[in-house]
Design goal:
- It is a single chain.
- This protein is an alpha/beta fold and 459 residues long.
- The chain has two domains: 177 residues, Helix Hairpins (Orthogonal Bundle); 159 residues, Trna Endonuclease, Chain: A, domain 1.
- It is built from ten helices and seven strands.
- It is flat and about 185 Å long.
C-alpha cells in the first residue's frame, strides 16, 4: 500500500517540481522569453510575407507562361504570314518572268510583220502588259504591308505586357530579398536569445551548485509555498526560530503555528549537487551512479533531521518533523533508487514533503485557523447579542415611561379643553353678540381621543 501511495505521490511530485522550477527560473527567463515571443512573432510575420510573395511569384509566372504561349502563337502566325508573303512575291516574280517570256515571244512573232502598224500595236501591247504588271505588283506589295502591320499590332501588346511583367518580377525579387533579409535578421535575433537563455540557465545551474545559494533557494521556495497555502508570515508561520538542544543551538527553517497552540516543524534541504551532476552526465552508467548518490544524500539528510529530535524542544509539536525538498523531481529521482525512503522516514518520525504535499498540509492548517476565527467570531457575536438585548430592554423601559407621560398629558389636555368649552368660551362668545368683538370666530376645541399604545409585558 505504501508503494502504491508512493507511486501516486511521485506523479504529483513531478508535476509540482515543474511549478517550483518554473518559479525559481522565471526572473532569469522573463526577458529572454519575451524576446523569443517577439522574435517568433516577427518570424511568423516574415514567413507570412514570404509566403504571400511566393504565391504572387507563382501567379506572375503563370501569367508569364500564358503570355509566352500567346507570343509563340503570334510568332507562328507571323511566320505563316511571312511564308504567304514570300509565296506571293515568288508568284509575282514568276508572273513577271512569264510576262517577260511572253513579251519576247510576241516580239519574235511580230518581227515578220512590217510597217508602222505592227510597231504601233507592239508598243500598245507592251504598254498594256507593263500596266498590268505594275498593278499586280502594287496589289501584292500592299497586301504584304497590311499583313506586316496586322502582325505588328498583334505582337505589340504582348511585348508591352512582357515588359510590365519583367518590371513586376524585378520588384517582386527585390521585395523577396528584403523579406528574406528581415527573416534572416529575426532568426539571428532568435538564435541570440536562445544562446542567452542557455547562458542564463548555465549560470543558474552553476549558482545552485554552491551550498549557500542552494540553501537560500530552498528557504525562498519554502516561504513561497507557505504564502501560496495562505499561511501569512506574521500570523501562521515563523522563519528561522532558534532553540537550545543537546547538540547545541537548533534552528528549524520554519515553525508552523496551528490552532490550539500546536506547531509543526519544517526543515528545508536543497539536495541538488548529485542530481545536477546526474543530468549533466553524458554516460548512462555515470548518470545512474550520480542518482544513487543523490538518493543517499536525501537519506543522509533525513537521518540527520531525525537525530535532531525537534519535538523534544517544541513540546507543542507532534512527534514528527517535515523534511522539505524544493521540487518533486528531486524526491522522484531519489525514490527510483531508494523506494523505501518514505517508509523509513516515517519510521524515524520524518515526513518527506515536496511543494505539492506541503501545500496540502499547510492548507489543512489554514483551514483550522479559519475555523478558529469563525469560532471566535461566533463568541463575539454572542457577546454583542447579549449586550444589544440589555440595551434594548433599557430603551423599552424608557419608551414605556414616555408613553405613560403622553397618556397623562392627553388626559390633562382633555380636562383643560372641557373646562374651557364649558366655563370660558360661552362667556367669551357673548361679547360677539353684544357687538364688541372682532369678526373672527372662536374655534371649537375638540378633545383628543387617541392614547399612546401600551408596551406589552415582557415575558
Amino acid at each position: 500500500m505504501i508503494a502504491t501511495a508512493a507511486a501516486g505521490l511521485v506523479t504529483g511530485l513531478i508535476l509540482g517540481g515543474l511549478l517550483a522550477w518554473l518559479w525559481s527560473s522565471a526572473r532569469l527567463r522573463a526577458e529572454s522569453h519575451a524576446t523569443l515571443i517577439e522574435a517568433a512573432e516577427r518570424t511568423q510575420r516574415a514567413e507570412a510575407s514570404a509566403e504571400e510573395l511566393r504565391k504572387q511569384t507563382e501567379e506572375e509566372r503563370a501569367e508569364l507562361t500564358r503570355l509566352r504561349d500567346q507570343l509563340a502563337s503570334a510568332q507562328q502566325a507571323r511566320t505563316a504570314a511571312d511564308t504567304r508573303s514570300e509565296e506571293a512575291l515568288k508568284s509575282l516574280q514568276e508572273q513577271k518572268a512569264l510576262l517577260s517570256q511572253a513579251r519576247g515571244e510576241m516580239a519574235e512573232a511580230f518581227k515578220a510583220l512590217s510597217g508602222e502598224a505592227l510597231k504601233t500595236n507592239n508598243e500598245a501591247f507592251l504598254s498594256l502588259a507593263r500596266t498590268s504588271f505594275e498593278r499586280l505588283h502594287a496589289e501584292a506589295k500592299g497586301d504584304l504591308s497590311q499583313r506586316q502591320q496586322a502582325i505588328d499590332e498583334m505582337v505589340k501588346p504582348l511585348q508591352e505586357a512582357l515588359l510590365r511583367y519583367e518590371s513586376q518580377i524585378h520588384l517582386l525579387e527585390q521585395s523577396r530579398q528584403s523579406a528574406y533579409g528581415g527573416l534572416d535578421q529575426h532568426l539571428k535575433s532568435l538564435a541570440d536569445s536562445h544562446q542567452k537563455l542557455q547562458q542564463e540557465t548555465g549560470n543558474l545551474v552553476k549558482a545552485l551548485r554552491a551550498p549557500t545559494v542552494r540553501g537560500r533557494w530552498g528557504e525562498i521556495t519554502l516561504k513561497r509555498v507557505a504564502e501560496l497555502a495562505g499561511m501569512v508570515e506574521h500570523c501562521d508561520f515563523t522563519e528561522q526560530v532558534s532553540v537550545e538542544g543537546d547538540d547545541g543551538r537548533l534552528r528549524p527553517d520554519m515553525v508552523v503555528h496551528l490552532p490550539g497552540d500546536r506547531q509543526i516543524i519544517v526543515d528545508a534541504k536543497a539536495v541538488l549537487s548529485a542530481y545536477l551532476e546526474a543530468h549533466a552526465a553524458q554516460d548512462e552508467t555515470q548518470r545512474l551512479a550520480f542518482l544513487r548518490q543523490h538518493a543517499a544524500q536525501v537519506r543522509s539528510r533525513m537521518e540527520d533531521l531525525s537525530a535532531k529530535a525537534y519535538w523534544s524542544q517544541f513540546p507543542q509539536t507532534p512527534k514528527y518533523v517535515v523534511l522539505f525538498l524544493p521540487g518533486e523531481q528531486y524526491l522522484g529521482a531519489a525514490l527510483e533508487q531508494d523506494p523505501k525512503l518514505i517508509e523509513d522516514g516515517l519510521s524515524r518520525s520524518v515526513l518527506i514533503a515536496t511543494p505539492t504535499t506541503l501545500i496540502a498540509l499547510l492548507h489543512a492548517g489554514a483551514y483550522g485557523w479559519r475555523q478558529e476565527q469563525l469560532s471566535e467570531h461566533a463568541q463575539q457575536a454572542g457577546r454583542l447579542g447579549k449586550d444589544l438585548y440589555d440595551r434594548m430592554a433599557v430603551l423599552t423601559e424608557h419608551l414605556d415611561d414616555i408613553g405613560q407621560s403622553l397618556a397623562k398629558s392627553v388626559q390633562a389636555y382633555n380636562k383643560a379643553v372641557g373646562s374651557i368649552e364649558t366655563r370660558v368660551l360661552p362667556a367669551a362668545r357673548k361679547f360677539k353678540e353684544l357687538g364688541i368683538a372682532s369678526d373672527k370666530d372662536l374655534p371649537r376645541l375638540e378633545p383628543i381621543d387617541s392614547v399612546p399604545r401600551s408596551a406589552p409585558p415582557s415575558e
